[in-house]
Amino acid sequence: MKRPGHVEAGRVERGVNVPQSYRLARRDSRGERTVVHLRNGATFGGEEIAICAGPCGVESSEQLDETARSVADAGANVLRGGAYKPRTSPYSFQGLGEEALKMLRDAGDRYGLGVVTEVLDPRDVELVTKYADMLQIGTRNMQNFPLLREVGATRMPVLLKRGLSATVQEWLLAAEYVLLGGNESVVLCERGVRSFDVATRNLLDISVVPLLEDLTHLPVIVDPSHAMGIARLVPPIAVAAIAAGAHGLLIEVHPDPPNALSDGAQSLDCAQFRELMRRLSPVAEFAGRRLPRRKPSGDGVANAGYRGSAAGEESASTAHSEVRSSSSGVKLA
Description:
Blueprint: E1 12-13, E2 16-17, H1 18-21, E3 34-37, E4 43-44, E5 50-54, H2 61-74, E6 78-80, H3 98-111, E7 114-118, H4 125-129, E8 134-137, H5 145-152, E9 158-161, H6 168-180, E10 186-190, H7 208-215, E11 220-222, H8 224-228, H9 234-244, E12 248-252, H10 270-286, E13 322-325
Parallel strand pairs: 5-6, 5-12, 6-7, 7-8, 8-9, 9-10, 10-11
Antiparallel strand pairs: 1-2, 3-4, 3-13
């Protein structure tokens, strides 16, 4: 008779015994797959796909408001946007910090969107949790272990991006740090890895989506914007990601991409994002899932104002979401 959670000794990944590496993240560590819920009703891992859309960096309240209004009206349920930008060059736009966090919270409240934004430093975690609904750990910080431990102690949902050159095992072990801290609200984000080919910004590992379905109970989403680096390639890769079984997408959208302060070349404009959402609906249905169900209000904006006031009123120690489990998986025709 096998002990609970037992995995055959023969099941290894590059010579490392799975139970001895990522014990909490592995698929058979729990009976059902994890579904992460944000306060606005967005889910990662269930039948409804999470659509996270917004600018690479928050540049102004006008830019963010226009983007948030447009993506909400098109059917997105999570607003993404950078307040702190980890840039390769110290001379590039670094983000607006807490001012941008306030803008994100205000736009999220106004249009009924959850807010996901990156945190770079363990010292900033408490501040960012005042405004966000989900903490993003960017690719450069996937193995920032003090940061992983800090977000693991918050109980706030964490979006963990794959590192620039990280193996699947290294990625899952990074998730293990967060889970070990007691935070079960972890979502994995594939955004491509570096390769010898410079034709695209990164090399998107689309095969990792069904692979993770077997290896872990955690939800996985795809970031086609950073994977491609070319806006016209984002829609077909987004469609492919959903067809492969991804639980969501992270897409950069800007009202004026040519004049964006960061990542304009890979950002969709608002019209392109609306068209993408129309293309995704039948693909999601084929994959056994569905796009977010948004209820348009009188002014055409979906679910506006679900949280009437600034997020700072709640203690950071309060749970900002809950994790539930339900059976899920891609249904093939």
